[in-house]
Amino acid sequence: VFLCILVIFFIAAVWLSLTMSKKAMIPIQRSYRQQQQFLADASHELRTPLSIMNTSLDVIELENGKDFTSYTKEVIVDMKEEVGRMSRMVHHLLLLARSDSGSVEFEIVAFDLVPRMRQWVQAFEAIANQKEIVLNAHLPRELSIKGDIERMKQLVYILLDNAIKYTPKHGNVNVIVDQQSKQWSLAIQDTGVGIPIEDRRRIFDRFYRVEKHRSRDEGSAGLGLSIAKWIVEAHHGSIEVESVVNQGSTFTVKFTYLE
Ligand code: ADP
């Protein structure tokens, strides 16, 4: 009898814990979905006012720019930079919210990476020049790959933007594309501030920034590398970083050729 009571008690306990956890799961899942939807909606709604602000600043500058004092000009430049920063952040948030809900479609096409890469690197020449950073690209003659061109561009932009952002004046940034028989790789090397070993594992996490004050001064939110990782993984690749503090970092992305 005692054994029977014990078995019934045990079954009842298991049944109770299973139904309780099931019940607890539903609100958690629902609240997670609601949170995702909220993030996607909020980011989407924020895009319109930001683009209106951007256009309005252009109009103000165009119509009255010549009458501005140097102080007003500075204020306008700062405002445009801040609006740009917020737009990028909102764009990244929206993308992450969409990636979570699985609603981002990748358009995989075959293309030659080399002319594209030349173009993408060239887009950073002005900003590199401003910091007197030498920007070089070492590319093969051609490299036929399969991938989503816009997302690949975004990946390169995130890595190059970081390399230049975290490299002090007069540094070097190298972009190296290498092809082997089974895989190809992209390495972005810089002679920047480097990443301490304890942070290296976490820099791909959302909102993670090394030395928060340093990154905020550079206008960052800690979302770039999590998007980079998501793009790489969606192309079945891998991303890793090697770094020496105060000497520089190298981000390497490796891909096998997609069928
Ligand atoms: P952020 O928008 O802050 O640059 P990321 O996700 O792109 O966000 O990067 C996360 C953190 O990793 C950055 O805040 C920065 O501290 C560090 N980091 C990224 N790239 C580099 C780099 N090339 N050199 C030094 N630190 C870097």
From TrEMBL:
One of its GO terms (biological process) is cellular response to phosphate starvation. Its EC number is 2.7.13.3. It comes from Paenibacillus pectinilyticus. The lineage of its organism: Bacteria, Bacillati, Bacillota, Bacilli, Bacillales. Coiled coil: none annotated. This is histidine kinase. One of its GO terms (molecular function) is ATP binding. The chain crosses the membrane at residues 1-18. It is found in: Cell membrane. It is an enzyme of class 2 (transferase). Keywords: ATP-binding, Kinase, Membrane, Nucleotide-binding, Phosphoprotein, Transferase, Transmembrane, Transmembrane helix, Two-component regulatory system. GO terms for cellular component: plasma membrane. It catalyses: ATP + protein L-histidine = ADP + protein N-phospho-L-histidine. It comes from the Bacteria. It is a multi-pass membrane protein. Residues 41-259 form the Histidine kinase domain.
